[in-house]
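sorry to bug you again but im stuck and you know this stuff better than me. below you get a single protein, a line of residues and a line of whole numbers that encode the local backbone shape. mainly i need to know what kind of three dimensional shape the backbone takes. anything you notice is useful, everything is just below:

***
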Amino acid sequence: NGCTGMDTVTVTVVVCPAIDEADRSLITEIYPNPTQRFLNVKVSDVYPGDLNLRITDVTGKAVYTQSVENPNANTLLQLDLQDLSVGMYYLHLSNGERFSVHRLTIH
């Protein structure tokens, strides 16, 4: 059609850490992941106060909660997730000072 032109576009990319790169110092291991029913969460250290666990679905709705009073180093928690449907979830861990989020798949 005979029209010509030029334009300049500037694209800025901000790299954010992935959820899995969050502060993992609250735990040492989450396994098996993916899981069908049981999920093991191994606590890595002694934390003052309670350790709060919360699992949310992809919409952010809490589907599982548990609080552990004064966990010791190497405490192994076994979560029974039989009531959860197949899908992707997020495991939130908090002790009031530290917080981490970990992706979890149930199949």
In short: The radius of gyration is 20 Å. Residues 19-24 have pLDDT under 50 and may be disordered. The chain has no helices and seven strands. Strands lie at 27-31, 38-43, 50-57, 62-69, 76-80, 87-94, 99-106.
